[in-house]
Design goal:
By secondary structure, this protein is α/β, with parallel strands linked by helices. Helix content is about 35%, strand content about 15%. It has a 5-stranded parallel sheet, with helices on both faces. The longest helix is centred in the middle third of the chain and has 19 residues.
Length: about 220
């Protein structure tokens, strides 16, 4: 099936693309909606601007739209318009997303797709987080932690390129402090969210980054 991928630049949306391709689907384009701020409940905000570079590295066309409101209704409307464009321009038959636990996101995505007569592929839905994170690393993915807000994670995680050892340590900490090891947040019931990004690319892509540490009360 020809798919449009909801792409945030994070490890989950990137691995969902990988899984969909492994299942025989064709990724015709990426669809990225840039939310106004991190206050968005529906869309991923941190590092979203880097998706333009990632799309070029993956050599997949990208449809983007920027928003000036965090209102979920406006976000849904713009996402629907973007997917309609993807259907018209690239002939997509469905949409793949990297949601794991957020019923809020999944329900909105499915409602939009039904209205456009598009199928929905959710390869990571309800996946065991420990198995998922190990599979991610073992499949050759690299992701870097770019912010932390959960109790139990300090600034030593910032800028860390995650290894199997780091994943195992993360799972222990998530069990101890009660945060979501996959970093999804929101409807998953996370104490906070930790955002990361993945480069799954056919070309080298280098980005300079400055790391800062902001301690928040939780």
């Amino acid at each position: 099936m020809k798919l449009g991928a909801l792409f945030s630049g994070g490890k989950d949306s990137a691995f969902a693309i990988y899984r969909a391709k492994s299942e025989g689907h064709d990724i015709s384009c990426l669809v990225t909606v840039f939310p106004k701020s991190e206050e968005s409940h529906l869309l991923h905000h941190p590092n979203i601007g880097l998706t333009v570079l990632q799309a070029k590295a993956m050599n997949i066309p990208q449809i983007t739209v920027g928003l000036d409101s965090d209102d979920t209704r406006i976000e849904v409307d713009n996402l629907k318009k973007s997917l309609k464009t993807a259907k018209e321009q690239f002939g997509i038959e469905g949409v793949v997303h990297g949601g794991i636990r957020s019923a809020f996101q999944k329900n909105h995505f499915e409602t939009i797709c039904r209205s456009l007569n598009l199928g929905v592929v959710s390869p990571l839905w309800n996946v065991n987080e420990s198995i998922y994170l190990h599979d991610l690393i073992q499949s050759g993915f690299q992701f870097i932690v770019t912010s932390v807000t959960a109790q139990g994670l300090d600034n030593s995680w910032l800028g860390k390129e995650m290894t199997i050892h780091d994943v195992e340590k993360l799972i222990v900490l998530s069990s101890k402090f009660g945060f979501n090891a996959s970093f999804e947040g929101g409807e998953a019931g996370d104490i906070c969210s930790i955002m990361s990004f993945v480069f799954w690319a056919h070309q080298d892509c280098k980005i300079k980054r400055n790391m800062g540490w902001v301690q928040r009360k939780v």
